[in-house]
Write a structure and sequence with these properties.
The protein is of the alpha/beta class. It is built from 6 helices and 5 strands. Bound molecules: ligand C2R. The site of ligand C2R has 20 residues, from strand 3.
Length: about 180
Amino acid sequence: MNKVLVGIIMGSESDLPVMKEAAEVLTQLKVPYEISIVSAHRTPERMFSYAKEAAGRGIKVIIAGAGGAAHLPGMTASVTHLPVIGVPVKSSNSIDGWDSILSILQMPNGVPVATVALNAAKNAGILAAQMLSLSDAQLQLRILAYKESMKEKVLEAALKIEKPSAFKGNSRKKVKK
Ligand code: C2R
């Protein structure tokens, strides 16, 4: 079995529909991960143990998602040197999502949390893979292929809706110079 490199944690099971998107993209990019529920508020000892032990277990990046008063990513970052990517979740106790965003984003100097957009667990997974790809040439190639496939999808969609007179900046069509 491959060694787990990314730890995905979330404050509650109710965050799973959002946070599973990080797991899905890591699976797609063939990055081994683990996933669990850890709450700074409800299970503080568990949170500290998880964050303190992660590096020693071989984890390289932590993705932490939480909603409302989302202290999990910041508190995790406070006790580990590992990069922590925070996912603000719009949860049942969020007012409008800004509460989750700001409580993850507005960290004091010295304790950064790389914060992605609201509910953007997929981007957290991609960002974690990009960090790991700095020392993994094969993973770099998989990420580049992923980006290429995104480009292909956009160009296919553009071709479907374009009228003959529309913008010709499509790599599949010959552009007259
Ligand atoms: P419940 O659905 O379990 O009531 O949780 C969770 O991340 C979730 O989005 C509602 C919301 O509370 C959040 N929660 C936190 C923390 N623990 C749970 N923000 C934490 O430690 O930061």
